[in-house]
């Protein structure tokens, strides 16, 4: 597979760096080819920067020290996001107040960053010239300092060999620079830990990496590298806490400080690019979305959720992440899209850059690939990881003395069998390097600090680099001042996540929104969890109920559908579901007198003008009959005549009757009927005989039965009449008879050639489709039935809704004139893929996508949930084009019990393909 080397250069080790110190400066590893080289920016070193790494540099007022900030630091208190300006302030603090003051000032920064600082040797170093420096440091030629951000979200790894040292964003860079080998035992240990921690997050704990001689720097610790004539020293030491924990139970004061800080921090982060929020059903991400919403709405931002179709089929939590995120986004007025979690192609561009970054490991990468492939590169993704540092993660907290054994037990889980050798391999010597006793933690709980420094420090950075591959991830909770504020509350209040719950409650997203304006409609049935036997019984009962309901139909719906002799439209307001007629809402039959079979209950008889035939139809089926025994027309459904701008069965019936009785006759009336659009069936009767035909999809399965004396709208009804399967007419034929009157016998025949009619229309496909769409738009608010096809979205410029765009904030808000709807059966990966594709299309078009969850793909289930999801004034648009497969899908959906809702079928048109022009294809 072809690899895009330019994309690999931009993506591998995203926002990364490599600092080579001392004798290591001779050459950078192959991964750094194409990177920027900055020799001497810091004393005694060469800095290599990945092409996308942002750098700020400042030199102290005495020109004896340099501060470099890599990434996106944020000074929340000062409202500054310029890394050079922040570096300048730090350099001044360092010169005036010393190293500790500079480190503490940096530690309180938000954003994502890595600080590199270097003290240069004084001009007289090595010549006997005195200098104003501490005696212990006077003999050092070079002193370098490395400080990570709050969660070490831009990781720091370090290795040393003699007078050569390397500090880098990835352990593979350090190992390659120093020629260090993989740690095979570490790899075996990781396999063992994955087995012991099956189903849970697994990482190499302590300071260990997958390379011999390469260590990780954990959060709240710094690196000090000293190079002089005697050699190179590397020291890792804790620098936080540097102020004691301030405990308080004043929830109001803490909440006010928390809300002010996270709001200010998030606003500054959102201003660093086009903002987006990674949104799930979790509380932390709802907090981020709530505080970020104003910035997102004002800057073309959006929310997104990634989903593995396989997880959707087997894990309700994965479906809930999508549905809750969709509802929260809607409540906040944010566009929302779903990314499809998927593996990258082997040996392709992403595979190469991902392996290069994480070598020699290969962590999960479906989400990383989805974000890299599907999200824009100018994005600033607001990610909510880190919130649990300020609430709770480890919730079982017995009194303990923290020892290497206890650390191992906490990592493996309570009750785990822990051997001495494993303890030594995981945490031997760790507490000497990173002390966690009471004196070191200054009142902070070691359970909280352990989660902060180990899980977030050793594993969390992978989550952030996953997003950095294609854009930039920034972290509203990556703020030491914010976390100290949260940690000031007692454990029970943090356990209850009081601050977060209060914020989302104020924002109106504490509970999942629902009701008529919800973007997610859920099935009325609930799943049985009592075991496979009960489940099988429920499924069997469900199939039986559905079979019955297909026969018994559903409730009528409101409105009238005028006509000259008889017209009908259901009255939804006067019939409950319990008293609904017992026949399919689109059921009909045209039967001769004395027909052997009896139509099912719920169909009502209407004599036709010829004096012998009768129409048996569901009372909710739109219909119009006009004429007398000499010439009559029956129209069923919702036909559209584009040339005359007609959109009702009654209007079309009048038009056809004029052609039949007063105009050219049966042939002309048949041609005009064949050119109708929409969902319809027409029966014509006159002295020249009769014709029966349906729309081109076809949305009715028109059949001949009872020895060709009956016209029936669906096979189930034909079977109920005892007439077997009958003869299908379909959308590419008609039924004809030359014998008017009660003794009629129908036979299939060809449709008329519409070529002359198309030529005489004087229009092209684009204009006809536009005129058709405008007529359909008058029926009510359009809701586009959207799967993975974009056809309906091409009609947006013709409708009253937003024009095609880029998913700009606000264009998808509730109340937009045009929306989309997708019915989603999570157990089907095909359905999940269609939902994601449809949502992406809707997002790019700037319209909202509602989700309708269904328990199965049964059309009756889909129709029921759709009926609840759509308001009475809304019209469902379907993008199916003529063809037997499309016709079956439409028939299945429309024939479901109770489905009397008007639909719009803009491509149900025989004339369209005969006209010149693209017709918005």
What does this structure look like?
- This protein is α+β, with helices and mostly antiparallel strands and 921 residues long.
- The strands form six sheets. A seven-stranded antiparallel beta sheet has the order 19-23-24-25-26-30-31. A six-stranded antiparallel beta sheet has the order 2-3-1-9-8-10, with helices on one face. The protein has a six-stranded antiparallel beta sheet with strand order 4-5-6-7-11-12.
- Helix 7 links the parallel strand 13 (274-278) and strand 14 (302-307).
- Mean pLDDT is 87; it is low at 126-139, 513-517, 525-581 and 801-815.
Summarize the structure.
The protein has 921 residues and is α+β, with helices and mostly antiparallel strands.
Helices and strands in order:
Elements: H1 5-11, E1 17-22, E2 36-39, E3 45-49, E4 55-59, E5 65-74, H2 83-97, H3 99-107, E6 110-119, E7 142-148, E8 157-161, E9 164-168, H4 171-178, H5 184-196, E10 214-216, E11 221-228, E12 231-238, H6 251-270, E13 274-278, H7 283-298, E14 302-307, H8 309-314, H9 316-331, E15 336-340, H10 349-358, H11 366-374, E16 379-382, H12 387-390, H13 404-412, H14 420-427, H15 430-433, H16 438-441, H17 446-468, E17 472-474, H18 480-487, H19 491-495, H20 498-507, E18 520-521, H21 532-552, E19 566-568, E20 588-591, E21 604-607, E22 614-617, E23 623-628, E24 631-640, H22 649-662, H23 666-674, E25 677-686, E26 689-694, E27 703-705, E28 710-712, H24 715-720, E29 727-728, E30 733-737, E31 747-750, H25 755-760, H26 765-777, E32 781-785, E33 819-824, H27 829-845, E34 848-853, H28 859-869, E35 874-877, H29 884-894, E36 903-904
Parallel strand pairs: 13-14, 13-16, 14-15, 16-17, 18-34, 32-33, 32-35, 33-34, 35-36
Antiparallel strand pairs: 1-3, 1-9, 2-3, 4-5, 5-6, 6-7, 7-11, 8-9, 8-10, 11-12, 19-23, 20-22, 20-28, 21-22, 23-24, 24-25, 25-26, 26-30, 27-28, 27-29, 30-31
Helix pairs in contact: 1-10, 2-3, 6-7, 6-18, 7-20, 11-17, 13-14, 22-23
């Amino acid at each position: 597979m072809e690899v895009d080397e330019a994309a690999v250069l931009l993506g591998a080790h995203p926002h990364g760096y490599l600092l080579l110190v001392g004798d290591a400066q001779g050459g950078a590893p192959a991964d750094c080819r194409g990177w920027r080289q900055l020799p001497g920016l810091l004393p005694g070193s060469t800095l290599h920067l990945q092409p996308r790494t942002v750098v700020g540099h400042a030199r102290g007022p005495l020109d004896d020290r340099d501060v470099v900030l890599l990434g996106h630091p944020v000074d929340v208190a000062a409202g500054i996001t310029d890394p050079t300006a922040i570096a300048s302030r730090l350099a001044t603090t360092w010169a005036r107040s010393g190293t500790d003051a500079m480190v503490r000032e940096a530690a309180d920064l938000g954003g994502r960053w890595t600080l590199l600082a270097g003290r240069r040797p004084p001009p007289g170093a090595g010549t006997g010239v005195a200098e104003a420096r501490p005696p212990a440091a006077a003999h050092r030629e070079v002193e370098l300092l490395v400080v990570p951000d709050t969660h070490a979200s831009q990781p720091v790894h370090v290795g040393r060999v003699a007078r050569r040292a390397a500090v880098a964003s990835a352990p593979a860079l350090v190992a390659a620079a120093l020629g260090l080998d993989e740690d095979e035992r570490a790899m075996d240990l990781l396999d063992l830990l994955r087995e012991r921690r099956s189903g849970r997050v697994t990482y190499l704990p302590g300071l260990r990496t997958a390379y011999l001689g390469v260590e990780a720097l954990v959060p709240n610790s710094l690196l000090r590298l000293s190079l002089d004539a005697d050699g190179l020293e590397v020291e890792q030491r804790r620098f936080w806490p540097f102020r004691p924990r301030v405990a308080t139970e004043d929830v109001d004061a803490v909440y006010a400080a928390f809300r002010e800080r996270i709001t200010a921090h998030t606003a500054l982060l959102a201003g660093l690019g086009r903002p987006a929020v990674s949104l799930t059903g979790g509380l932390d991400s709802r907090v981020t979305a709530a505080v970020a919403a104003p910035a997102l709405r004002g800057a073309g931002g959006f929310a997104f959720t990634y989903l593995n179709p396989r997880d959707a089929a087997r894990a309700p939590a994965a479906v809930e992440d999508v549905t809750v995120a969709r509802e929260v986004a809607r409540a906040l007025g944010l566009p929302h899209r779903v990314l499809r979690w998927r593996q990258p192609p082997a040996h392709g561009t992403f595979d190469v850059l991902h392996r290069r970054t994480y070598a020699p490991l290969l962590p999960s990468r479906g989400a990383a690939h989805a974000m890299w492939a599907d999200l824009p590169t100018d994005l600033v993704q607001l990610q909510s990881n880190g919130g649990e540092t300020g609430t709770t993660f480890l919730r079982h907290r017995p009194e303990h003395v923290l020892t290497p054994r206890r650390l191992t037990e906490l990592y493996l889980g309570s009750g785990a069998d822990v051997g001495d050798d494993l303890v030594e391999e995981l945490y031997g010597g760790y507490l000497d390097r990173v002390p966690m006793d009471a004196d070191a933690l200054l009142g902070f709980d070691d359970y909280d600090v352990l989660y902060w420094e180990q899980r977030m420090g050793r594993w969390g950075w992978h989550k952030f680099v996953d997003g950095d591959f294609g854009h930039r991830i920034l972290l509203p909770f990556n703020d030491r001042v914010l976390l100290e504020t949260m940690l000031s509350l007692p454990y029970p209040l943090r356990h209850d996540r009081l601050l977060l719950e209060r914020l989302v409650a104020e924002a109106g997203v504490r509970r999942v929104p629902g009701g008529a304006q919800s973007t997610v409609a859920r099935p009325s049935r609930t799943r049985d969890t009592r075991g496979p036997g009960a489940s099988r019984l429920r499924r069997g009962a469900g199939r039986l109920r559905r079979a019955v309901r297909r026969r018994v139909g559903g409730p009528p719906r409101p409105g009238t559908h005028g006509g000259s002799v008889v017209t009908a439209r259901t009255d939804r307001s006067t019939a409950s579901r319990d008293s609904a007629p017992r026949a399919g809402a689109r059921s009909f039959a045209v039967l001769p007198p004395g027909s052997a079979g009896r139509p099912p209950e719920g169909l009502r008889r209407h004599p036709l003008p010829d004096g012998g035939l009768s129409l048996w139809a569901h009372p909710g089926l739109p219909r119009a009959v006009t004429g007398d025994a000499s010439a009559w027309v029956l129209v069923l459904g919702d036909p559209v005549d584009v040339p005359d701008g007609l959109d009702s069965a009654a209007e079309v019936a009048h038009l056809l009757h004029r052609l039949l009785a007063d105009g050219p006759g049966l042939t002309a009336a048949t041609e005009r009927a064949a050119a109708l659009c929409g969902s319809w069936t027409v029966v014509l009767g006159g002295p020249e005989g009769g014709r029966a035909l349906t729309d081109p999809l076809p949305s009715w399965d028109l059949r001949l039965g009872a020895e060709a004396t009956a016209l029936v709208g669906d096979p189930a009804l034909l079977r109920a009449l005892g007439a077997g399967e009958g003869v299908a007419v379909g959308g590419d034929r008609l039924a004809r008879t030359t014998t008017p009157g009660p003794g009629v016998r129908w036979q299939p025949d060809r449709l008329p050639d519409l070529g002359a009619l198309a030529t005489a229309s004087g229009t092209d496909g684009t204009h006809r489709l536009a005129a058709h769409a405008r007529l359909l738009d008058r029926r009510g608010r359009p809701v586009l039935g959207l799967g993975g096809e974009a056809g309906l979205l091409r009609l947006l410029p013709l409708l009253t809704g937003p024009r095609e765009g880029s998913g700009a904030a606000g264009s998808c808000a509730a109340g937009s004139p045009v929306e989309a709807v997708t019915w989603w059966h999570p157990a089907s990966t095909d359905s999940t893929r269609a939902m994601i594709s449809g949502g992406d299309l809707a997002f790019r078009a700037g319209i909202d996508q509602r989700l309708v969850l269904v328990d199965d793909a049964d059309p009756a289930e889909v129709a029921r949930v759709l009926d609840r999801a759509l308001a009475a004034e809304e019209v469902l648009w379907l993008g199916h084009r003529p063809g037997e497969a499309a016709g079956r899908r439409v028939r299945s959906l429309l024939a479901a019990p109770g489905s009397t809702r008007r639909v719009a079928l803009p491509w149900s048109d025989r004339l369209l393909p005969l006209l010149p022009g693209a017709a918005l294809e």
